[in-house]
Amino acid sequence: MTFPINILVPTGALGSGVDEDQVFAALVAGGIHAIACDAGSTDSGPSYLATGRCKYSRAAVKRNLDILMRAQSQFAIPLLIGSCGTSGSDEALNWTRDIALEIAAEHDLSPRIALLYSEQAQAVIAQKIQKGLIAPLAPMKAVDAEVFSGCARIVALMGPEPYIEALKQGVDIVLGGRSTDAGVLAAVPLMFGADPGAAWHAGKTAECGGLCTVNQRDGGVIIRVDSEGFEVEPLSPDNRCTPHTVSAHMLYENADAIHLTEPGGVVDVSKAEYIALDARRVRVRGSRFLPRPYTMKLEGAAANGFQTLMLVGIQDPEVLKSLPHFLAQMHSVMVSRVTATLKVDKSDFDISLRPYGWNAVSGIAPTDGFSPREIGLMLVATAASQEIATQVAKVCNPVLFHMPLDLDAPLPSYAFAFSPAEIERGAVYEFKLNHVVHTNQPLELVRTVLIENGATV
């Protein structure tokens, strides 16, 4: 294989959109060695890991995957997809597998598929804890075995090595469980001997498709990786990359713009140079990959109670001028009513009041005397069961509906958004882990299954 190694990255997340015309135009132009993209993230919260469900609709994922599988078949290049089904859990990977097999049957395709599973059994995790091979990351300070055992699912973020090993077995498509975004894209360049710093930095740059371009929603990109650096170019002829858009992506989901920790090492871009080759393309050189002991980040999630929501709209100008006092007063009245009416302790439930249009997103009250024209005030009642959470909300209903700024004043009426007012949200999920596990070698915690002619080999 001669350099550069060219990887087509059609989208930042399978299911969020793939431009078929752009993909096939790039493949017809020639020189593409693989198609690779991500399909998951923790961005949208812990429920997708805890439940194994995908963030995107099945129809959207199938449409995107249909385009990529037809492209893979027609041009006979490998297709790699990481973190399938959002969480990369076993259930999410199997869900994606079933879609792929359905597409293959519809188009009379016979791809050889590798499935890379990275969900961890509790027995494996317990053994790692016992041997002292799991370490906390901030803000975690300890390794609590009970927290691990309480997770509904735990996944380990794999690097590029399982993808490389699968490709060496001659597969056409690799569907991966939870993986580092950059690792999926770096796999093929690394397999063919590209500079590790360039391969990893290129993978990080292109992980979200067009997010490293000027028009971030206009398709994906091509990365070209060689022995000294890499280039990045938009798929769309109307889009462009600049040194700013490319360099800035090191800060995406990364608190350090210079260093990025990955399995087996750290990407160091302190000496990287970003050079505009023309109006559309940027070349990067000087990135380094500094080897470290091999670790895989662990993600775990579980249910933690149930919630019921209520929402009212408030336009009363006097209330809106005194929101801190009004909200504190409302919360106090609600807690007192719930404990007295339901005969429960304050520790048995939680009431959160979130004034959208004032500070519900940031949690920081304006300091410039700002008074909104209106707010949407959402009540979130959380308890150990859905029934209790709903009863808490029902007890709070008249207070949310009618509480005046002055408790001795006549009762106002605010505007409920729905009827019935109580919306049962169901289980509430939370991330439980922020840890890494030390491994003997990169494939230790990954299970590979091969599918040929629609059946497991």
Strands of the widest sheet, in order across it, are: 12-13-9-8-1-2-3-7-4-21-22
Largest sheet: 11 strands, mixed
Counted up, domains total: 2
Oligomer: single chain
- What's the total number of strands? 22
How much beta, percentage-wise? 25-35%
Question: What's the rounded overall pLDDT mean?
Answer: 96
Coarse morphology: globular
Estimated structural class = alpha+beta
Q: Which residues form runs of ≥5 with pLDDT under 50?
A: none
User: What is the rounded Rg?
Assistant: 25 Å
Distance between the termini: 29 Å
Helix amount = 25-40%
In DSSP terms (H or I, runs of 4 or more residues), the helix count works out at: 13
Short description:
The protein has 457 residues and is of the alpha+beta class. Helices cover 31% and strands 28% of the residues.
Description:
- It is built from 13 helices and 22 strands.
- The protein is an alpha+beta fold and about 450 residues long.
- The protein has 2 domains: about 5-120 and about 155-295 and about 440-455, no CATH class; about 305-430, Alpha-Beta Plaits (2-Layer Sandwich), CATH 3.30.70.
- The protein has an 11-stranded mixed β-sheet, with helices on both faces. Strands 5, 6, 15, 16, 17, 18, 19 and 20 form an 8-stranded antiparallel β-sheet that branches.
- Helix 1 links the parallel strand 1 and strand 2.
- The mean pLDDT is about 95.
Provide the fold topology.
Layout: E1 5-9, H1 20-29, E2 34-40, H2 47-51, H3 58-75, E3 79-86, H4 90-106, E4 113-117, H5 122-130, E5 134-136, H6 145-149, E6 153-156, H7 161-168, E7 173-176, H8 181-191, H9 196-206, E8 221-225, E9 229-234, H10 243-248, E10 259-262, E11 265-268, E12 273-276, E13 282-285, E14 288-291, E15 295-314, H11 317-321, H12 323-342, E16 349-356, E17 375-383, H13 386-402, E18 415-416, E19 423-431, E20 435-438, E21 447-452, E22 455-456
Parallel strand pairs: 1-2, 2-3, 3-7, 4-7
Antiparallel strand pairs: 1-8, 4-21, 5-20, 6-15, 8-9, 9-13, 10-11, 11-14, 12-13, 15-17, 15-18, 15-19, 15-20, 16-17, 21-22
Helix pairs in contact: 1-3, 3-4, 8-9, 12-13
